[in-house]
Amino acid sequence: MTRSSTPTLVVVGAGVKAVAVAAKAAVLREMDIAVPRIVAVERTAVAANWRADGGWTDGQHRLGTSPEKDVGFPYRSSLVPRRNAELDERMTRYSWQSYLIGTNQFAEWVDRGRPAPTHKKWSQYLRWVADNVDMNVIFGEVQRISVDSGANGQRWAVHTADQCVDGDGLMITGPGQPERSILPGNPRVLSIAEFWHRAAQCELIAAERVAVIGGGESAASMLNELFRHRVSTITVISPQVTLFTRGEGFFENTLFSDPTGWTGLTLDERRDALTRTDRGVFSARVQEALLSDDRIRHLRGRVAHAVARDGRIRLTLSTNQGAERLETVHGFDLVIDGSGADSAWFIPLLGQDALDLLEIGLGGPLTADALQDAIGYDLAVTNVTPKLFLPALSGLTQGPGFPNLSCLGLLSDRILGADIGAGTEPDDTADRATRRSDEHQPVR
């Protein structure tokens, strides 16, 4: 057994975070800086969640974040002493503006007032970056994640239906699967994917009473789409006391792009900031549309139970009234389950060895809250080796920009600056991740 000269970082999901890390790694490699080999394992396509076939959008809605917050933003690298300015300059070759220039769209975009791109256009940008850095993507749905033990330590093993990809580090991205709903298979209850599939097919919804479950951006995007459909009333169900508007001023935005002072805040201060700016809130643009539409109502509560009865879907809502819990029942003709992404969607995929590894590192049961509290500076779970990077769960401990699009350049710095080590491999074989990925051409 000999030590592999280059460690491998396996990324589950070929979305925006995977593209950002692959781009930064490619630039560092050009600068003769040692970086891990990046291998992404993707179910369908690069940037699929920004397209209609990904299930999270119809591709025609506008990006809520400024497109200038691209894969290198905020271009304030700290990985290479005395060469960070060079690194940032090289990264601008993969910026949003460079994409527009390279595809002859820059002048038109400027002349139109720099509009927010559609989700589909954003996916085209990400695919352009992935193509230009020869991002290594293995296509297959992850079915199990385990830990393999070798002579020189442990490595992650990501299993699809027909192959296994080994890595010295593992990064898990993505919001999970949009097909879930409170009543699967019932035609009067739509999952996020089912709703956007109908929207993409230009199939108008006709119903008297429609309920949308969720108070975050997934629900907000669907409300924005519902305005054009033939519905009489739209009731938004969320646990918040009202539908809050996301803070989008300079000071709020700075928290996302510059997390320097984040760890100096108390946990209560951090939670309050997240509540005001990121979790369970609607963008100002969506709120403005809500104000002009008198079909919108709000019900406070969490859905405790759902049942189909007499041609309707009856939802039991649970709310806290002081020290007591109150339950009420409401009937709807159509329910859209937009309760949002699940940042811990991957836990059911973990094998017993991986579960044991994480529970030992956490010092207790594996839960989303426990993982969230344990995310360190490098966006990995502390006290766990090999490294497990969970940027979607890093907002509370490291800053609100890391789980989303607001500081992708800093995210790639944190992850590529981590020491993920290198595993072992037999003398007469190549690294399994490399061998298997060689069967696929770089994404085009």
TrEMBL record:
Group of enzyme by EC: oxidoreductase
UniProt biased composition (Basic and acidic residues): 429-444
GO biological process, one term: intracellular iron ion homeostasis
Region (Disordered): 421-444
Reaction it catalyzes: L-lysine + NADPH + O2 = N(6)-hydroxy-L-lysine + NADP(+) + H2O
Pathway(s): Siderophore biosynthesis; mycobactin biosynthesis
Matching Gene3D superfamilies: FAD/NAD(P)-binding domain (3.50.50.60)
Cofactor(s) required, per the database record: FAD
Keywords noted in UniProt: FAD, Flavoprotein, Monooxygenase, NADP, Oxidoreductase
InterPro entries: FAD/NAD-bd_sf (IPR036188), Lys/Orn_oxygenase (IPR025700)
GO molecular function, a single term: L-lysine 6-monooxygenase (NADPH) activity
Pfam family, one: Lys_Orn_oxgnase
EC number(s) reported in the record: 1.14.13.59
Family: Belongs to the lysine N(6)-hydroxylase/L-ornithine N(5)-oxygenase family.
Stated name of the protein: L-lysine N6-monooxygenase MbtG
Native organism: Mycolicibacterium pulveris (Mycobacterium pulveris)
Lineage: Bacteria, Bacillati, Actinomycetota, Actinomycetes, Mycobacteriales
